[in-house]
Design a protein that fits this description.
With 320 residues, the protein is of the alpha/beta class. 48% of the residues lie in helices and 17% in strands. The strands form two sheets. It has a five-stranded mixed sheet with strand order 2-1-3-10-4.
Length: 320
Amino acid sequence: MRKFDLWNKVTVMMASAACVSALGACGNTTPVVQTTEPAVQETAAATETEKAADAQAAEAAAPTEEAQAETESVGEGEIIVFAAASMTETLTELKDTYEAAHPEVTITYNFDSSGTLKTQIQEGADCDLFISAGQKQMNQLDRNASAEVNTEGLDFVDENSRINILENKVTLCVPEENPKNLQTFDDLADALKDGDILFCMGNSDVPVGQYTQKILAYYELDEEQLAADGVITYGSNVKEVTTQVAEGSVDAGVIYCTDAYSAGLTIMDYATKDMCGQIIYPASVLKTAANPEAAQYFLDFLTTDEAMEVFEKVGFSRVN
């Protein structure tokens, strides 16, 4: 063999061996194909879980139809309030304040003597909230009161809502000229004994009249005899007594300080607790109320500092 051919053969053999070696190396290496499919699936599953959790939380947080209906009913609709005539000015002002803050509420008042209001409630008049100028009229509607007072066993008062909301004062007031020159209740008692006066008081079925009866008894005066002698005249509620004094048709009258303030009358004297006791105004939502929730909400408002400022500027005070 020629030297040139031998060299070529060796070269070819070496080249073939290198190729085989390379192919062997290639065959022993497994190609790695990277993919994100498992991670994508895991992320998607987590997202779906979070969405489900969020939906469950939102559903739990959302109010039920019953709860939503209950929330909407509190503090809404018409509230019918029966209140003592002596509260006319203050409650009228507070109505405007309350309705401005709660446009979903309408307050309807019925002002009169507490005795008249009690009778109307007893006879079936629509009323959500009752505010009396005396405990007697409220007790007559409260089954928890003494049978000596609630003689008919009436059950109108929601005892869980009943509170003593205000205190008032009984006063001696005279017309602007003060024709009999009365300065004190002692002066009034002397004038009544002398029969030299025309005095106005509330009827016996209204609180202001009952307080006045106690004052007469304190001075040992006989109301029936004084009335028979033409010394006493009557008003069906405190506003009527106030009007007679303001117009000068009587020489003096016993009214609340709140009514004296509203009418611009001069207060000559204040009755003491020994004369007629403490003048407390109880309030209660009624069991027959058509809108008890809203009535309670309004009653709560009447005990706030905001409402008390209105009451106090005419002479009412918090109950001590």
